[in-house]
Amino acid sequence: MPDFELKPPCPPRKPASSAATRAPGFTIEFMTSAIDNRLATLKQRFDTREARIGIVGMGYVGLPLALLFSGQRFRVTGFDIEQAKVDKLNSGGSYIVRILPAEIQAAQQAGFSATADYSEIAEMDAVIICVPTPLNEHNEPDLSFVTKTVQAIAPRIHEGQLIVLESTTYPGTTEEIVVPLLEAGNPRGLLVSRTIEESGVHVAFSPEREDPGNDKVARHDIPKVIGGCGPAATELASVMYNSIFGRVVPVSSPSVAEMTKLLENIYRCVNIALVNELKQLSMRMGIDIHEVIDAAKTKPFGFQAFYPGPGLGGHCIPIDPFYLSWKARQYDFRTRFIELAGAVNTDMPYFVIEQIGNGLNEQRKSIKGSKVLVLGLAYKRDIDDLRESPSLTIIELLRDKGAEVFYNDPYFAKVGRGRHYDLNMTNTPLDNLSQYDAVVIVTDHSSYDYKAIVAQSQLVVDTRNATKGITAANIVRC
Ligand SMILES: NC(=O)c1ccc[n+]([C@@H]2O[C@H](COP(=O)([O-])OP(=O)(O)OC[C@H]3O[C@@H](n4cnc5c(N)ncnc54)[C@H](O)[C@@H]3O)[C@@H](O)[C@H]2O)c1
Predict the structure, then answer these.
(1) Would the CB of 57 count as within 6 Å of ligand 1?
(2) Are 66 and 90 in contact (CB under 8 A)?
(3) Is the beta carbon of 387 within 6 A of some atom in ligand 1?
(4) How far is the CA of 144 from the centre of ligand 1 (A)?
(5) Are 169 and 133 in contact (CB under 8 A)?
(6) Torsion of CA 457, 460, 466, 472, to 10 degrees
(7) Cα–ligand 1 centroid distance for 198 (angstroms)
């Protein structure tokens, strides 16, 4: 048993006629009782686009979300504590490479503006929280961004307002952290609505499921999972999200929605660890793991392809599993799959260093004193995000071993200090490649000409299978 008192779970939702249980694209049926009229009025504001949407956190998640709502003629206000971001947006500019200034300007035409002033929260019909949920120095959840946000909005909430948390987090966060802070922090004593009869503020959790850099699935086509603290919250949030997403998937509680997001990310983390381990075995056995995966994925059922690489990166897959393993400890439970996957994936940059050493060794050289060019800083192809990127670890490990390290990445002119690194480097042009003892492909940006890179380099260490189809003696694939 856990050694703390859990809050009672949300009461079960009313079955059947709720709009949220219907197929996507439903039209709102207006019901007859006073209670239903009250809800219908709130829903109608979303349906007619009179509802004002506030999005807290104008980052990789919040800004694209704001643009989706603006694209559907909602008047959106973006809140952010970074004044520089607010100023950039209000001047019609963008600080995310894949979002063009023209998109911000089009949103401005629909009423979009940004602010660092929380007093405007009071004017919003819905407030969606998209702030960071990192780990602290002990690899434990750091919910300070969420708690600070909720404490700042709590004094300004009003009856009938919808508050949705989108930040990835452990099951229980909405009920155990967000709800108590909202209820304690507003001077009018507003409570969170739990039943269809109760008025109050409506609270839900709905995870962001974006896949940055994925051009194959439009964001609108990613179904939106929603778990409200009461049926009215689920219903209102479903109406709101149904205006920008093709399909909403209501679930019975915020905890189910929170756990859904973690299951998705842990599934990726564990399967990537599996292929990373099998890659190392395959290399010893002289088998090309990529050829194996390509053959396996011809099976029309029961197999999904995951690919090995230099280690995990990004704000989600390396971090989110730890949210669950931390929470599991409160239940005296060990999440062994997460631990094992974490151990295998964390070792991958070290494995890459070993392979660089082996490649140099073949040429009678050592890492110490070698000039090494790392290609790609971003944690994955064609994006401008280097959070938790394995490139950063690989650069630090190479430096520790005495290599002189350079990098090239079209998305980063320079790299300074981050959560785990302090590199202080500037982008090196992609020319005169023969000067380097090794060129290491860590991020397979599609702008690179891999044939030319192989032709011009002394040694290429390829961690992404980017040189597939190129036959040359100077390639080490790992
Ligand atoms: N980036 C992704 O691809 C992705 C995908 C799925 C889920 N998520 C999750 O979404 C959440 C947000 O991630 P992100 O990538 O957008 O982060 P981000 O760092 O890009 O953006 C967060 C923004 O919130 C702002 N902020 C922080 N505290 C604030 C406060 N108190 N008030 C107002 N603004 C504040 C920051 O200045 C920043 O602009 C995280 O929980 C993350 O795990 C991210």
Answers:
(1) yes
(2) no
(3) no
(4) 12
(5) yes
(6) 80
(7) 32
Strand partners, 408: 375
What number of CA atoms fall less than 13 Å from residue 208's CA on the CB side? Answer: 28
Residue nearest to atom 25 of ligand 1 (CA): 57
What is the b/e burial string over 409-427, where b = at least 16 CB atoms within 10 angstroms of the residue's CB? Answer: bbbbeebeeeeebebebeb
Note the pTM of the prediction, 2 decimals.
0.90
Q: Can you tell me the distance from the alpha carbon of 406 to that of 383, in angstroms, rounded to the nearest whole number? A: 20
pLDDT of residue 13: 37
Q: What is the pLDDT of residue 30?
A: 39
Nearest to 69 by CA among 150, 153, 126, 146: 126
Q: How many CB atoms lie within 10 A of CB 284?
A: 7
Q: What sign does the CA torsion over 288, 289, 294, 298 have? A: positive
Pocket residue to mutate for ligand 1, from 129, 167, 208, 263, most atoms within 8 A of Cβ = 208
Q: What gap in Å lies between CA 343 and CA 324, rounded to an integer?
A: 16
- Measured at the alpha carbon of residue 174, what is the angle toward residues 172 and 179, in degrees to the nearest 5? 120
Cross-strand pairs, 164: 128, 204
Q: Which two tokens stand for residue 139?
A: 């690899």
Looking at residue 34, its pLDDT comes to 67
Q: How far is the CA of 248 from the centre of ligand 1 (A)?
A: 22
Q: Please indicate whether residue 206, judged by its CB atom, sits closer than 6 Å to ligand 1.
A: no
Considering only CA atoms, which residue is closest to atom 28 of ligand 1? 145
- Please give the structure tokens belonging to residue 172: 């229980």
Answer yes or no: 316 catalytic. Answer: yes
Query: Which stretches of the chain drop beneath a pLDDT of 70?
Result: 1-35
Provide DSSP, 81-150. S-HHHHHHHHTT--SSTTS-HHHHHHHHHTT-EEES-GGGGGG-SEEEE-----B-TTS-B--HHHHHHH
Ligand 1 mean position to 42 CA, how many Å?
A: 28
Does the beta carbon of 130 sit less than 6 angstroms from any atom of ligand 1? yes
Residue 212 alpha carbon, nearest atom of ligand 1: 3
412 lines ligand 1 (CB under 6 A): no
User: What is the per-residue pLDDT across 31-56, written as a single tens digit (0 to 9) for each?
Assistant: 446 667 888 888 999 999 999 999 99
Q: Which long-range contacts (CB under 8 A, 24 or more apart) does 466-473 make?
A: 466/441, 467/441, 468/290
Q: Residue 157 burial by CB count (10 A; 0-12/13-18/19+): exposed, middle or buried? A: buried
Q: Can you tell me which atom of ligand 1 is nearest the CA of 169?
A: 41
